[in-house]
Amino acid sequence: MDPAPPPPLPDDALASVLRGLAPRDLAVSRCVCKAWRRVVDDRRLLRADLLPRSLGGIFLNLHDLWFTQFLARPTTGAAVSGRLDYTVPGEPDRLPILYVSDHCNGLLVLDHCVVNPATRQWALLPPRPDDLPQHPPPGMDVCTDEYLVFDPTLSPDDFELFILPSVPYKLKQSDEECEESEWPPSTLILSVFSSKTGLWEEREFGREGAAAGTLPGMVGSVRSFLDHQGCYWRGALYVCCSDCFVMRISLSNSTYRVIRLPTEGGEFYLGKSIKGVYCASLFQKSQLQIWFLNDECGHDQTEWVLKHDRDIFPILPNLNYDEQCDGPWILQEFYYWGPEQHYDEISELEVNEVIVEDKMEEKFEWDSDNDNVLEPGSRSNDSCIILLGFHPYKKVVFLSDKFDRVLAYNWSISKLQDLGKLFPKFYIEHDYQFFHRLVRASFPYTPCWLGELPEKLNSEARLQD
Protein backbone atom coordinates (compact mmCIF):
# COMPACT_ATOMS: atom_id res chain seq x y z
CA MET A 1 0.00 0.00 0.00
CA ASP A 2 1.32 3.38 -0.94
CA PRO A 3 2.09 5.61 2.02
CA ALA A 4 -0.31 8.45 2.69
CA PRO A 5 0.79 11.82 1.30
CA PRO A 6 2.40 14.08 3.89
CA PRO A 7 0.19 16.76 5.39
CA PRO A 8 0.49 20.21 3.80
CA LEU A 9 2.97 22.59 5.34
CA PRO A 10 1.58 25.32 7.59
CA ASP A 11 1.53 28.73 5.93
CA ASP A 12 4.38 30.01 8.11
CA ALA A 13 6.65 27.11 7.15
CA LEU A 14 5.71 27.37 3.47
CA ALA A 15 6.38 31.12 3.47
CA SER A 16 9.81 30.50 5.00
CA VAL A 17 10.66 28.05 2.20
CA LEU A 18 9.37 30.33 -0.54
CA ARG A 19 11.37 33.28 0.75
CA GLY A 20 14.53 31.40 -0.13
CA LEU A 21 13.64 30.99 -3.82
CA ALA A 22 15.34 32.92 -6.57
CA PRO A 23 13.21 35.69 -8.15
CA ARG A 24 12.12 33.75 -11.22
CA ASP A 25 11.36 30.57 -9.26
CA LEU A 26 9.25 32.57 -6.82
CA ALA A 27 7.24 34.01 -9.70
CA VAL A 28 6.73 30.52 -11.18
CA SER A 29 5.68 29.15 -7.76
CA ARG A 30 2.54 31.31 -7.91
CA CYS A 31 1.39 29.13 -10.81
CA VAL A 32 1.79 25.76 -9.04
CA CYS A 33 -1.36 25.81 -6.94
CA LYS A 34 -3.80 28.22 -5.31
CA ALA A 35 -2.38 27.61 -1.82
CA TRP A 36 1.13 28.61 -2.88
CA ARG A 37 -0.17 31.64 -4.72
CA ARG A 38 -2.19 32.71 -1.66
CA VAL A 39 0.85 32.48 0.61
CA VAL A 40 3.05 34.39 -1.84
CA ASP A 41 0.50 37.18 -2.21
CA ASP A 42 -0.72 37.39 1.40
CA ARG A 43 2.79 37.39 2.88
CA ARG A 44 3.95 39.97 0.30
CA LEU A 45 6.81 37.76 -0.83
CA LEU A 46 6.84 39.37 -4.27
CA ARG A 47 10.07 41.30 -4.03
CA ALA A 48 11.02 44.41 -5.95
CA ASP A 49 13.42 42.41 -8.13
CA LEU A 50 10.40 40.62 -9.66
CA LEU A 51 9.01 43.93 -10.93
CA PRO A 52 10.03 45.51 -14.26
CA ARG A 53 12.84 47.60 -12.78
CA SER A 54 15.72 46.72 -15.08
CA LEU A 55 16.33 47.14 -18.80
CA GLY A 56 16.39 43.86 -20.69
CA GLY A 57 17.02 45.18 -24.20
CA ILE A 58 15.25 46.85 -27.12
CA PHE A 59 12.66 45.26 -29.42
CA LEU A 60 13.02 46.61 -32.98
CA ASN A 61 10.50 46.70 -35.83
CA LEU A 62 12.19 47.10 -39.22
CA HIS A 63 10.70 48.34 -42.48
CA ASP A 64 9.24 45.57 -44.68
CA LEU A 65 10.06 42.92 -42.06
CA TRP A 66 7.14 41.41 -40.15
CA PHE A 67 9.20 39.79 -37.43
CA THR A 68 10.43 41.88 -34.50
CA GLN A 69 14.13 41.64 -33.64
CA PHE A 70 15.59 41.86 -30.11
CA LEU A 71 18.77 43.64 -29.05
CA ALA A 72 19.49 42.07 -25.66
CA ARG A 73 21.60 43.32 -22.78
CA PRO A 74 24.31 40.89 -21.59
CA THR A 75 22.63 40.19 -18.25
CA THR A 76 19.39 39.10 -19.90
CA GLY A 77 20.54 37.78 -23.27
CA ALA A 78 20.50 34.19 -21.95
CA ALA A 79 17.61 34.56 -19.54
CA VAL A 80 15.05 36.21 -21.84
CA SER A 81 14.61 35.30 -25.49
CA GLY A 82 13.03 37.56 -28.09
CA ARG A 83 11.79 34.52 -29.97
CA LEU A 84 7.96 34.55 -29.88
CA ASP A 85 6.79 31.77 -32.20
CA TYR A 86 5.91 29.50 -29.25
CA THR A 87 2.72 31.59 -28.91
CA VAL A 88 1.49 30.08 -32.20
CA PRO A 89 1.85 26.27 -32.13
CA GLY A 90 1.74 24.80 -35.64
CA GLU A 91 3.62 24.71 -38.90
CA PRO A 92 6.30 27.43 -39.19
CA ASP A 93 5.19 28.40 -42.71
CA ARG A 94 1.70 29.11 -41.38
CA LEU A 95 2.73 31.48 -38.63
CA PRO A 96 1.09 34.90 -38.51
CA ILE A 97 3.28 37.94 -38.36
CA LEU A 98 5.17 38.14 -35.07
CA TYR A 99 5.35 41.91 -34.87
CA VAL A 100 5.35 43.79 -31.58
CA SER A 101 2.89 46.70 -31.63
CA ASP A 102 3.40 47.91 -28.04
CA HIS A 103 5.16 47.18 -24.75
CA CYS A 104 4.22 48.03 -21.17
CA ASN A 105 6.05 46.89 -18.02
CA GLY A 106 7.21 43.57 -19.42
CA LEU A 107 4.23 42.61 -21.62
CA LEU A 108 4.25 42.77 -25.43
CA VAL A 109 1.30 43.13 -27.81
CA LEU A 110 1.27 40.93 -30.91
CA ASP A 111 -1.51 40.69 -33.47
CA HIS A 112 -2.95 37.54 -31.88
CA CYS A 113 -1.93 37.78 -28.21
CA VAL A 114 -0.31 39.61 -25.32
CA VAL A 115 2.88 37.82 -24.21
CA ASN A 116 5.36 37.96 -21.35
CA PRO A 117 8.77 36.88 -22.76
CA ALA A 118 10.28 36.52 -19.26
CA THR A 119 7.74 33.95 -18.00
CA ARG A 120 6.88 32.68 -21.52
CA GLN A 121 3.17 33.02 -20.85
CA TRP A 122 0.60 34.66 -23.10
CA ALA A 123 -3.08 35.54 -23.43
CA LEU A 124 -4.85 35.14 -26.77
CA LEU A 125 -6.77 38.19 -28.01
CA PRO A 126 -10.25 38.00 -29.54
CA PRO A 127 -10.75 39.65 -32.93
CA ARG A 128 -10.65 43.44 -32.92
CA PRO A 129 -13.98 45.24 -33.33
CA ASP A 130 -15.05 45.54 -36.97
CA ASP A 131 -16.40 49.05 -36.48
CA LEU A 132 -14.36 51.32 -34.28
CA PRO A 133 -16.60 53.55 -32.16
CA GLN A 134 -14.69 56.81 -32.71
CA HIS A 135 -14.77 58.13 -36.26
CA PRO A 136 -14.22 61.64 -37.55
CA PRO A 137 -17.08 63.26 -39.45
CA PRO A 138 -17.80 62.20 -43.03
CA GLY A 139 -15.04 63.10 -45.44
CA MET A 140 -12.15 62.33 -43.07
CA ASP A 141 -9.98 59.24 -42.74
CA VAL A 142 -8.10 58.35 -39.56
CA CYS A 143 -5.49 55.78 -38.53
CA THR A 144 -5.51 53.86 -35.27
CA ASP A 145 -2.84 52.47 -32.95
CA GLU A 146 -2.97 50.01 -30.03
CA TYR A 147 -1.62 50.86 -26.59
CA LEU A 148 -1.17 48.45 -23.69
CA VAL A 149 -1.72 49.26 -20.02
CA PHE A 150 -0.22 46.86 -17.47
CA ASP A 151 0.67 47.81 -13.90
CA PRO A 152 1.99 44.78 -11.95
CA THR A 153 2.10 46.78 -8.71
CA LEU A 154 -1.70 47.12 -8.86
CA SER A 155 -2.78 43.89 -10.56
CA PRO A 156 -0.07 41.48 -11.78
CA ASP A 157 -2.52 39.27 -13.69
CA ASP A 158 -4.59 41.88 -15.55
CA PHE A 159 -4.05 44.23 -18.48
CA GLU A 160 -6.03 46.46 -20.83
CA LEU A 161 -5.54 47.21 -24.52
CA PHE A 162 -6.71 50.54 -26.00
CA ILE A 163 -7.34 51.37 -29.66
CA LEU A 164 -6.71 55.08 -30.19
CA PRO A 165 -7.23 57.27 -33.24
CA SER A 166 -4.39 59.42 -34.46
CA VAL A 167 -5.03 62.68 -36.29
CA PRO A 168 -7.00 62.42 -39.55
CA TYR A 169 -4.59 62.03 -42.43
CA LYS A 170 -6.84 62.75 -45.40
CA LEU A 171 -9.59 65.20 -46.33
CA LYS A 172 -11.77 63.49 -48.89
CA GLN A 173 -13.97 66.42 -49.71
CA SER A 174 -15.02 69.81 -48.48
CA ASP A 175 -17.62 69.47 -45.76
CA GLU A 176 -19.08 72.09 -43.45
CA GLU A 177 -19.20 69.60 -40.61
CA CYS A 178 -15.46 69.01 -40.97
CA GLU A 179 -14.74 72.74 -40.99
CA GLU A 180 -16.48 73.19 -37.63
CA SER A 181 -15.38 70.00 -35.86
CA GLU A 182 -12.66 69.96 -33.22
CA TRP A 183 -10.00 67.30 -32.95
CA PRO A 184 -9.76 65.44 -30.69
CA PRO A 185 -13.51 65.56 -29.98
CA SER A 186 -15.00 66.66 -26.67
CA THR A 187 -15.99 63.04 -25.94
CA LEU A 188 -13.51 60.40 -27.03
CA ILE A 189 -15.01 56.92 -27.43
CA LEU A 190 -12.40 54.16 -27.45
CA SER A 191 -12.44 50.42 -27.97
CA VAL A 192 -10.86 48.78 -24.90
CA PHE A 193 -10.06 45.12 -24.27
CA SER A 194 -9.99 43.99 -20.63
CA SER A 195 -8.27 40.75 -19.64
CA LYS A 196 -10.60 40.54 -16.63
CA THR A 197 -13.72 40.19 -18.80
CA GLY A 198 -12.06 38.83 -21.94
CA LEU A 199 -14.19 41.24 -23.98
CA TRP A 200 -13.89 44.39 -26.05
CA GLU A 201 -16.02 47.28 -24.87
CA GLU A 202 -16.60 50.94 -25.66
CA ARG A 203 -15.40 53.44 -23.08
CA GLU A 204 -15.95 57.21 -23.01
CA PHE A 205 -13.38 59.80 -21.98
CA GLY A 206 -14.33 63.44 -21.56
CA ARG A 207 -11.90 66.12 -22.68
CA GLU A 208 -10.55 68.61 -20.16
CA GLY A 209 -9.32 71.84 -21.68
CA ALA A 210 -9.06 72.88 -25.31
CA ALA A 211 -8.80 70.71 -28.40
CA ALA A 212 -5.65 70.60 -30.50
CA GLY A 213 -7.46 72.31 -33.38
CA THR A 214 -10.13 71.82 -36.03
CA LEU A 215 -10.22 68.76 -38.24
CA PRO A 216 -8.98 70.50 -41.43
CA GLY A 217 -6.14 72.04 -39.43
CA MET A 218 -5.05 68.62 -38.21
CA VAL A 219 -4.71 67.09 -41.68
CA GLY A 220 -1.05 66.75 -42.54
CA SER A 221 0.17 66.87 -38.93
CA VAL A 222 0.74 63.12 -38.78
CA ARG A 223 3.94 61.82 -37.24
CA SER A 224 6.88 61.86 -39.60
CA PHE A 225 9.06 59.76 -37.28
CA LEU A 226 8.71 56.32 -35.66
CA ASP A 227 5.29 54.71 -35.99
CA HIS A 228 4.53 54.19 -32.31
CA GLN A 229 4.86 56.86 -29.63
CA GLY A 230 3.37 56.41 -26.17
CA CYS A 231 3.88 55.26 -22.59
CA TYR A 232 2.02 54.49 -19.36
CA TRP A 233 2.95 56.39 -16.20
CA ARG A 234 1.19 56.46 -12.82
CA GLY A 235 -2.37 55.74 -13.91
CA ALA A 236 -2.29 57.69 -17.17
CA LEU A 237 -1.63 56.78 -20.79
CA TYR A 238 0.42 59.29 -22.80
CA VAL A 239 0.12 59.04 -26.59
CA CYS A 240 1.81 61.18 -29.22
CA CYS A 241 -0.93 61.51 -31.81
CA SER A 242 0.72 63.93 -34.24
CA ASP A 243 3.74 66.16 -34.68
CA CYS A 244 2.18 68.83 -32.46
CA PHE A 245 0.38 67.30 -29.45
CA VAL A 246 0.25 64.49 -26.88
CA MET A 247 -2.94 63.02 -25.48
CA ARG A 248 -2.94 62.28 -21.73
CA ILE A 249 -5.67 59.76 -20.84
CA SER A 250 -6.48 59.43 -17.15
CA LEU A 251 -7.78 55.94 -16.43
CA SER A 252 -9.04 56.70 -12.91
CA ASN A 253 -11.62 59.36 -13.84
CA SER A 254 -12.16 58.67 -17.58
CA THR A 255 -10.91 62.06 -18.76
CA TYR A 256 -8.24 63.17 -21.19
CA ARG A 257 -6.51 66.35 -22.21
CA VAL A 258 -4.32 67.68 -24.99
CA ILE A 259 -0.71 68.64 -24.23
CA ARG A 260 1.25 70.51 -26.87
CA LEU A 261 4.67 69.13 -27.71
CA PRO A 262 7.54 71.31 -26.47
CA THR A 263 8.54 72.27 -30.01
CA GLU A 264 7.19 71.62 -33.49
CA GLY A 265 9.07 70.14 -36.40
CA GLY A 266 12.03 67.78 -36.37
CA GLU A 267 12.11 64.23 -35.05
CA PHE A 268 10.58 63.27 -31.69
CA TYR A 269 10.47 60.34 -29.32
CA LEU A 270 7.98 60.23 -26.44
CA GLY A 271 8.68 57.78 -23.62
CA LYS A 272 9.27 57.34 -19.91
CA SER A 273 12.52 57.54 -18.03
CA ILE A 274 13.77 58.04 -14.48
CA LYS A 275 11.21 60.57 -13.21
CA GLY A 276 8.28 60.34 -15.59
CA VAL A 277 7.43 61.27 -19.18
CA TYR A 278 10.17 62.63 -21.43
CA CYS A 279 10.41 63.84 -25.01
CA ALA A 280 13.61 63.75 -27.04
CA SER A 281 13.77 65.95 -30.13
CA LEU A 282 16.26 66.29 -32.97
CA PHE A 283 16.65 69.39 -35.14
CA GLN A 284 19.03 70.12 -37.99
CA LYS A 285 20.10 66.46 -37.93
CA SER A 286 22.08 66.57 -34.67
CA GLN A 287 20.71 69.21 -32.27
CA LEU A 288 19.43 67.02 -29.43
CA GLN A 289 17.01 68.31 -26.81
CA ILE A 290 15.67 66.36 -23.83
CA TRP A 291 12.42 67.62 -22.29
CA PHE A 292 10.72 66.51 -19.06
CA LEU A 293 6.94 66.79 -18.66
CA ASN A 294 6.13 68.40 -15.31
CA ASP A 295 2.64 66.98 -14.89
CA GLU A 296 2.19 67.00 -11.13
CA CYS A 297 0.26 70.24 -10.63
CA GLY A 298 -2.86 69.70 -12.72
CA HIS A 299 -3.63 70.54 -16.32
CA ASP A 300 -3.41 74.30 -15.85
CA GLN A 301 0.24 74.08 -14.82
CA THR A 302 1.53 71.28 -17.02
CA GLU A 303 4.80 72.32 -18.63
CA TRP A 304 7.76 70.93 -20.53
CA VAL A 305 11.09 71.53 -18.79
CA LEU A 306 14.24 71.53 -20.93
CA LYS A 307 16.83 69.19 -19.36
CA HIS A 308 19.47 69.01 -22.09
CA ASP A 309 20.27 70.91 -25.28
CA ARG A 310 23.37 70.07 -27.32
CA ASP A 311 24.60 69.57 -30.84
CA ILE A 312 25.93 66.01 -30.65
CA PHE A 313 27.51 66.02 -34.12
CA PRO A 314 30.99 66.96 -32.79
CA ILE A 315 31.02 63.95 -30.43
CA LEU A 316 29.68 61.37 -32.89
CA PRO A 317 32.29 58.64 -33.38
CA ASN A 318 33.66 57.47 -36.69
CA LEU A 319 33.06 53.74 -36.40
CA ASN A 320 35.41 52.27 -38.97
CA TYR A 321 34.57 48.61 -38.58
CA ASP A 322 32.20 45.98 -39.89
CA GLU A 323 28.63 47.02 -39.12
CA GLN A 324 27.75 43.36 -38.53
CA CYS A 325 30.09 42.89 -35.57
CA ASP A 326 28.38 42.60 -32.20
CA GLY A 327 28.91 44.96 -29.32
CA PRO A 328 28.32 44.37 -25.61
CA TRP A 329 24.63 43.88 -26.49
CA ILE A 330 23.69 40.94 -28.73
CA LEU A 331 21.16 41.20 -31.55
CA GLN A 332 18.88 38.14 -31.53
CA GLU A 333 17.85 37.67 -35.18
CA PHE A 334 14.51 36.13 -36.20
CA TYR A 335 13.04 35.17 -39.56
CA TYR A 336 10.38 32.46 -39.25
CA TRP A 337 8.91 31.94 -42.73
CA GLY A 338 9.71 29.48 -45.50
CA PRO A 339 13.09 27.93 -46.36
CA GLU A 340 14.89 31.10 -45.21
CA GLN A 341 13.91 30.47 -41.57
CA HIS A 342 16.46 31.96 -39.23
CA TYR A 343 16.46 32.49 -35.51
CA ASP A 344 19.01 32.66 -32.76
CA GLU A 345 18.39 29.56 -30.70
CA ILE A 346 18.56 29.84 -26.92
CA SER A 347 18.42 26.56 -25.07
CA GLU A 348 15.63 25.75 -22.63
CA LEU A 349 18.21 25.51 -19.86
CA GLU A 350 19.50 29.01 -20.58
CA VAL A 351 16.00 30.46 -20.82
CA ASN A 352 15.09 29.16 -17.38
CA GLU A 353 18.42 29.86 -15.72
CA VAL A 354 18.39 32.65 -13.15
CA ILE A 355 21.42 34.82 -13.91
CA VAL A 356 20.26 38.29 -12.92
CA GLU A 357 21.93 39.04 -9.62
CA ASP A 358 22.61 42.39 -8.01
CA LYS A 359 26.38 42.27 -8.52
CA MET A 360 26.07 41.16 -12.14
CA GLU A 361 23.54 43.90 -12.78
CA GLU A 362 25.88 46.55 -11.40
CA LYS A 363 28.73 45.24 -13.57
CA PHE A 364 26.86 45.97 -16.77
CA GLU A 365 25.33 49.31 -15.82
CA TRP A 366 26.63 52.52 -17.36
CA ASP A 367 30.33 53.02 -16.72
CA SER A 368 31.92 56.16 -18.10
CA ASP A 369 35.34 54.42 -17.97
CA ASN A 370 34.10 51.45 -19.97
CA ASP A 371 36.01 50.52 -23.13
CA ASN A 372 32.80 50.96 -25.16
CA VAL A 373 32.55 54.67 -24.34
CA LEU A 374 33.34 56.29 -27.68
CA GLU A 375 35.71 59.09 -28.48
CA PRO A 376 34.68 61.82 -30.94
CA GLY A 377 35.70 61.18 -34.55
CA SER A 378 35.64 63.02 -37.83
CA ARG A 379 32.27 62.59 -39.48
CA SER A 380 30.78 63.62 -42.79
CA ASN A 381 27.86 66.01 -42.79
CA ASP A 382 25.43 63.36 -44.06
CA SER A 383 25.04 61.76 -40.63
CA CYS A 384 21.53 60.43 -40.02
CA ILE A 385 20.46 59.99 -36.41
CA ILE A 386 17.29 58.15 -35.34
CA LEU A 387 15.86 58.20 -31.82
CA LEU A 388 15.13 54.70 -30.46
CA GLY A 389 13.95 55.36 -26.91
CA PHE A 390 14.88 56.13 -23.33
CA HIS A 391 16.57 54.02 -20.69
CA PRO A 392 13.71 53.70 -18.17
CA TYR A 393 15.92 54.21 -15.11
CA LYS A 394 18.90 56.30 -16.25
CA LYS A 395 19.60 59.59 -18.01
CA VAL A 396 20.25 57.77 -21.26
CA VAL A 397 18.63 58.03 -24.69
CA PHE A 398 19.19 55.39 -27.37
CA LEU A 399 20.13 56.41 -30.93
CA SER A 400 21.12 54.84 -34.21
CA ASP A 401 23.44 56.41 -36.74
CA LYS A 402 24.41 56.12 -40.40
CA PHE A 403 26.71 53.18 -39.60
CA ASP A 404 23.68 51.15 -38.48
CA ARG A 405 24.90 50.92 -34.91
CA VAL A 406 22.86 51.37 -31.73
CA LEU A 407 24.35 54.02 -29.43
CA ALA A 408 23.52 55.06 -25.88
CA TYR A 409 23.90 58.76 -25.07
CA ASN A 410 24.13 59.74 -21.40
CA TRP A 411 22.91 63.32 -21.30
CA SER A 412 24.22 63.96 -17.79
CA ILE A 413 27.86 63.54 -18.91
CA SER A 414 27.51 63.95 -22.72
CA LYS A 415 29.10 60.57 -23.49
CA LEU A 416 28.27 58.00 -26.16
CA GLN A 417 28.53 54.22 -25.86
CA ASP A 418 28.36 51.68 -28.70
CA LEU A 419 25.89 48.89 -27.82
CA GLY A 420 25.77 46.73 -30.93
CA LYS A 421 24.46 46.28 -34.45
CA LEU A 422 21.01 47.49 -35.50
CA PHE A 423 20.15 45.25 -38.47
CA PRO A 424 20.35 41.42 -38.72
CA LYS A 425 22.60 39.93 -41.35
CA PHE A 426 19.76 38.51 -43.44
CA TYR A 427 18.11 41.96 -43.53
CA ILE A 428 21.05 43.60 -45.29
CA GLU A 429 21.74 40.75 -47.72
CA HIS A 430 20.47 41.60 -51.19
CA ASP A 431 18.83 38.18 -51.63
CA TYR A 432 16.04 39.20 -49.29
CA GLN A 433 15.24 42.37 -51.25
CA PHE A 434 14.92 44.69 -48.27
CA PHE A 435 15.56 47.84 -50.25
CA HIS A 436 14.89 50.33 -47.45
CA ARG A 437 16.77 49.68 -44.24
CA LEU A 438 14.71 51.64 -41.73
CA VAL A 439 13.49 51.32 -38.15
CA ARG A 440 9.70 51.58 -37.95
CA ALA A 441 9.27 51.32 -34.17
CA SER A 442 11.36 50.50 -31.10
CA PHE A 443 10.45 49.43 -27.57
CA PRO A 444 12.90 49.47 -24.62
CA TYR A 445 11.98 46.28 -22.76
CA THR A 446 11.75 45.85 -18.98
CA PRO A 447 11.35 42.17 -17.93
CA CYS A 448 8.61 41.37 -15.42
CA TRP A 449 8.56 38.10 -13.47
CA LEU A 450 5.06 38.61 -12.05
CA GLY A 451 1.59 37.73 -13.23
CA GLU A 452 -0.09 34.68 -14.68
CA LEU A 453 -1.48 34.59 -18.24
CA PRO A 454 -3.79 31.79 -19.46
CA GLU A 455 -1.43 30.22 -22.00
CA LYS A 456 2.00 29.03 -20.96
CA LEU A 457 4.80 26.59 -21.64
CA ASN A 458 4.47 23.83 -19.08
CA SER A 459 6.13 25.48 -16.08
CA GLU A 460 4.52 23.06 -13.64
CA ALA A 461 5.89 20.03 -15.48
CA ARG A 462 9.38 21.52 -15.49
CA LEU A 463 9.19 21.93 -11.71
CA GLN A 464 8.40 18.23 -11.30
CA ASP A 465 11.26 17.01 -13.54
From TrEMBL:
Alphabetized Pfam families for the sequence: F-box (PF00646)
InterPro entries: F-box-like_dom_sf (IPR036047), F-box_dom (IPR001810)
Stretches assigned to the F-box domain: 3-49
Transmembrane segments: none
Entries under PANTHER family matching the protein: F-BOX DOMAIN-CONTAINING PROTEIN, OS03G0653100 PROTEIN-RELATED
Name of the protein in question: F-box domain-containing protein
Source species of the chain: Urochloa decumbens
Lineage: Eukaryota, Viridiplantae, Streptophyta, Embryophyta, Tracheophyta
